[in-house]
Amino acid sequence: MLYTLAGGGTLCGVASLVLLIVSTATDFWMQYRYSGASANQGLWRFCINHKCHAHTITVAFWDATRAFMLLSVLSCFAGVLLGLSAFGNGTKSRRVRTGGFALLLSGFLALLALAIYTGVTVNFFGKRFLDWRFSWSYIVAWVAIILSFAADTWLGWICQQQTVQVGSTSVPIRRTLPNRLLPMFKKAKWEVIVYLHTKETAPNHSSLLLSLIAM
C-alpha cells in the first residue's frame, strides 16, 4: 500500500517538474496585439508575428519571476530525486519527509513567481495593451503548483502512516532478551502466574494471566 502511495506522490512530483520546466522555457505567458500584429511573450523572449527576440530591457519583475521559477524547478527536482530514492529503498521515512518538504517549497516559490508576474502584468501591461490575455505557459505553471502541493500532501500522508505503523508494532519481550536471560525470564513469569492464580482476586487478573501465558 505504501509503495503505491509513494509511487503516486512521486508521479505527481515528476509531472510538476515537467510542467515547471515547460512553463519556464516557453514564450506564451501572455498574448496581446502590438500595432495590429499578434504577439506573445515569455520570461526570456517576446515574439511578434512568430519572430522571436530576447528581452533587451532589464526589468526587475522579470528577473524576480525568472529567479523564483528556476529555484522552483531545482527544488522540485530535488524532491523528485528524494522521492525516487526513498521509493527504491523501502520508503525511508526521512527521505520521504524531506522530499515532500522540497516539493512544498517548490510550489511556494512558483506561487511567489506567479504572484509577482500577475501583479505587474495586470497593473502595467493590462493598461498598455487593450487586447491581451494570459496564455498557456502561465496556466501550465498554475497546474504545476497544484501538482507539487498534491505530491507534498501525498508524501506527508505516507510519513504519517509509517509513524502509525511503527508505533503500533509490538515486539514480544522474549525476542528482545539475550539467550542467557530466557530461563530466568520464564521462571519469573511462571512464579507470577502461580501467585496470581492462588490469590482470591484471581478473576480480576484474568487478562494479565492470559498475557503472561502468551509471552
Describe the structure.
The structure is a single chain. This protein has 215 residues and is an alpha+beta fold. The chain has seven helices and five strands; from the N terminus they run H-E-E-E-E-H-H-E-H-H-H-H. It has a five-stranded antiparallel sheet with strand order 4-3-2-1-5. A hairpin with a 2-residue loop joins strand 3 (45-48) and strand 4. It is elongated, with a radius of gyration of 30 Å.
Could you spell the SSE succession in H and E letters? HEEEEHHEHHHH
Structural class: alpha+beta
Q: State the shape.
A: elongated
Tally of extended strands?
A: 5
Main sheet record: 5 strands, antiparallel
Annotation field: number of helices:
7
The helicity comes to over 70%
**Based on the structure, what is the oligomeric state of the protein chains?**
single chain
What share of the residues does DSSP label as strand, in percent?
5-15%
Spatial sequence of strands, sheet with the most strands: 4-3-2-1-5
Low-confidence stretches: 164-178
Mean pLDDT: 76
The end-to-end span amounts to 30 Å
Taking Cα atoms only, what radius of gyration do you get, to the nearest Å? 30 Å
